[in-house]
Amino acid sequence: MKEGEEDRTIFVGNLPGAITRKELARLFADCGKVTSTRIRSVAVKGVKLPKEQAGNQNLMRKVCANTNLVDEDSKKTVNGYVVFADTKSVQEALKLNNMKEPNSGLHIRVDSSKPTYDNKRSVFVGNLPYGIMEEQLRKHFGEACGGVDNIENVRIVRDNETMKCKGFAYVLFKSRDIVAEALRLHGSTCAKREIRVQVCGRRYKGARGNEDDNTGGRNANRYEGRRATEGATKRILNKMKGKREISSKATLLPHKKRKTHSERNAAAKSGKKSGVSRRDAAQTKVNKRVKKIEKRIRTGMGKTKR
């Protein structure tokens, strides 16, 4: 991107896959003079490259895009960028956020080239299928949150190479009050999957308080949802209990007295377990037995009497 071009650029998401650069420029012609457009996030089928260019993903994507080798089964929408001649046109274009694309009827997303995210107006959506589309999420949350007009943006996180959904997304609402209604969709079914709906960002910086009645802690009156299961709570309590028992035993046990040098030598000669390994003790026992037999042979003990 050229210097000074970033302030004159907008991001356009959830565009139909068959849209062209001229059609994209025509969408925003009423906002001001358009200098250039770009189409991005196209799902391609792949093409064989020469050996010297093997592994060059950027080149492969360019070749597939120019030869129309597009994989519409994995992703039917694309993203784009529009560059205007002045910054005033950008403000006019941002007002067209959530408008319907004339040919496909998709709700397009219009944002600045570096969008800012508001965690307090967003929810995290997990356990999504790989082939889910933005319109499906928009419809699912719109039915429970007072209509699709209350949704500002839907952002599905996709893989850079396959352009398939990674299994999670973010939904940005126009008001913080709608977040509480969206959290009630936790465990609901969307695209034949039971989805997870959670708040975004860290909310517990101080004491957490009671999760059931939202008492205590910072931001106690806000709906936070259950963050831990009963089994996890039991494991934590048992772990803490075990640490306390170990520390109490350590304080009650007396310190072991260290043996002197003479005591260690006596223990080694006697072959006791204290300070002597089992192998050394067994060898000492064998040596004593051998000496005893040699003594009996020398003294003539054990010979047959005549």
UniProtKB/TrEMBL annotation:
A GO CC annotation recorded here is: nucleolus
- A Pfam family found in this protein is RRM_1
Q: Does the keyword RNA-binding apply?
A: yes
- Annotated ranges, domain RRM: 8-115, 121-202
Supply the SUPFAM superfamilies for this chain.
Answer: RNA-binding domain, RBD
Gene3D superfamilies from the xrefs?
Answer: 3.30.70.330
Annotated spans, Disordered: 206-306
Q: State its location(s).
A: Nucleus, Nucleolus
MF terms from GO for this chain are: RNA binding
Which spans does this entry mark as compositional bias, Basic residues?
A: 286-295
Task: State the superkingdom.
Answer: Eukaryota
Give start-end positions of Basic and acidic residues composition bias.
Answer: 221-233
Q: State the family named in the UniProt similarity comment for this chain.
A: Belongs to the RRM RBM34 family.
* Xref: InterPro entries: Nucleotide-bd_a/b_plait_sf, RBD_domain_sf, RBM34_RRM2, RRM_dom
Where does it primarily localize? nucleus
Species, as recorded:
Leptocylindrus danicus
Name of the protein:
RRM domain-containing protein
- Keywords, in A-Z order: Nucleus, RNA-binding
